C-alpha cells in the first residue's frame, strides 16, 4: 500500500522564490530564478542552486513522505560527489518560522523543529557557469570532438572504479529483469500519452521484443563477464559540464532515487549520451563518443547492445517529456514543447533498432606513413570505431600508450596475436551494422587475408587503404615522434629500411576495393575525404530496405 502523500508546507515554494527565503546566501539579494521539473522545484541565485523535491509518487519513484524526500537529498549529494565533488555543497533545512526560509548548508539533516516536525530539506549546489553544459555548447557549435573524447575517458575511468565485480552480484534472472523491466515500464508509461503516435509505440515494442528474442543472450553474457557498474544512470548532455574548454568534465544529477536504474551495464550508460547526440542530429559525434569509450574501456562488446539501450534511453526521455506534457503545474509553452519532444524521442527509439550494414576498412602501410591519421579521419567520416594495433598492444601489456615495449612484443607470434585481438574487437561492432577501421601495418598478406575472411564471415564488404609517403618525409616524422616520446608506436627511424623491405605488396586485394593515399601530397586530406564519401555510397547501397526487420 502506498503511503499517503505528505504535501509540502504551504507557502514554501513561493517563499524560496523570494530573496528573503535565503538569509544565508548573500547572492540572493540579486534575485532568485525559479524553474521546475516533473520531480523538483529549483531555485537559483547567482552562486547557488537549491533543489526542493516535489511531494509526488510516480511509480518509478516515491517522494510521497518527508522522510523519503530527505533521505533522497542525502543520497543525491553523496552519489553525485563521485563525479562532481566540488559542486554538491550539502543539504539545507526549510524552517517554517517566523516565515519559511532556508537554514545553513550542512552535511546532515537538521533535527526536528521545536514542535517535533520533521523539516523539509533542499540539495544545495554550486551554480555552474551558464552556457557551459554540453547541450548549450553543442547548440552554439562549440562542443568539440576532443571534449567528447575526454568525457568518454572520464566515464571509462569512473566505470573501472565502480564495477560490481565479476560476475556481477545478480542471478541471471535478476540481471535480465534489470535489463528488460525498465524498458517495458517506459513503453507502458507512454500508452495514451500526449504526442505519442500509437503506431510508432507499437513498432518500438515489436522491435524490442524481436531483439530480446534473438539477442537476449548477449545481455546475460555481460553479467558473468563483470560488465556491470554502479554508474551515473542519467548521462545526457545537460548533465555534462565543461567549465572551460580545456577542463575535465563534471557530471551532475545522477540517478539516486532507484538503485536498479543506476546499477547497470555500462553499454546502457554510454547509450544515453550517444542517443542524446543523435537526437540533436549529431550522429557522428555520437559515434565518436562511443568509439572513444570503447577504446578507453576496451569494451567493444558494447556495440552489439548499445542500440537496444539507445532505444530504451530514447523511450525514457519520451516518458519524461510526456509526464511534463500532462503536468498542469508546468507552463503551457513548456508542456507543448515537451509533447513534441516525446514524439521525436519515440521516433528515435524506433530508428535505433532499425537494421543497417557497415564495412571493414583496413588502413595499412609502413611505419611513419600516416596510417593513424588516415584511420582516425576515416573513422570520423564513416562514423564507426577505429582499432589501432599500437594502442591495443600497450593496453594488453598493461601499459600506457606512451610507454615503450621491448622487441619481444614484436616477434611473429606476438604480432599475429595482435591481429587476432583486433578482429575479435571489430566483430561486435560489425555485427551491430557499423563500419570499423583497423589501423596497423598489415605488412603480410596472411594478416590482410585473415581480415578479409572475417569480413566475409560477417557478410560485410572489406576495403583496403594503403598509405604511402616519401622516405625523407617519413624519416623526419619518425625523428620528430621519437623526440616527443608521446606516440603509441615504438617504431623509430632505425627501423625504416627494415620495415619497408618486409612489407608485402597488396596486389592480392581486389582492385575495386583497394585504394592508395600518398600522405606527402599537397591535397591528400581532400582526396581522403573524397574516398570516404565513395565508401559511404558503396556501404549505403548495401543497406537493408526500409521496413526490413530490425536486429
Give structural notes.
The structure is a single chain. The protein is of the alpha/beta class and 551 residues long. It has three domains: 12-126, no CATH class; 134-352, Aminoglycoside 3'-phosphotransferase, Chain: A, domain 2; 360-540, Rossmann fold (3-Layer(aba) Sandwich), CATH 3.40.50. It is built from 17 helices and 15 strands. A six-stranded antiparallel β-sheet has the order 1-2-3-6-4-5. A hairpin with a 3-residue loop joins β1 and β2 (40-44). α6 (198-221) packs across α10 (332-352), α9 packs antiparallel against α10 and α13 runs parallel beside α14.
Please supply descriptive tags for the structure shown above.
3 domains; Aminoglycoside 3'-phosphotransferase, Chain: A, domain 2; Rossmann fold; alpha/beta; elongated
How many structural domains can be distinguished in the coordinates? 3
Oligomer: single chain
Structural class assignment: alpha/beta
- Give the distance, in angstroms, between the N- and C-terminal Cα atoms: 40 Å
Q: Tell the overall outline.
A: elongated
CATH level 1 class label of the largest domain: Alpha Beta
Number of strands: 15
Radius of gyration: 27 Å
Number of distinct helices: 17
Main sheet specs: 6 strands, antiparallel
Order of strands across the widest beta sheet?
1-2-3-6-4-5
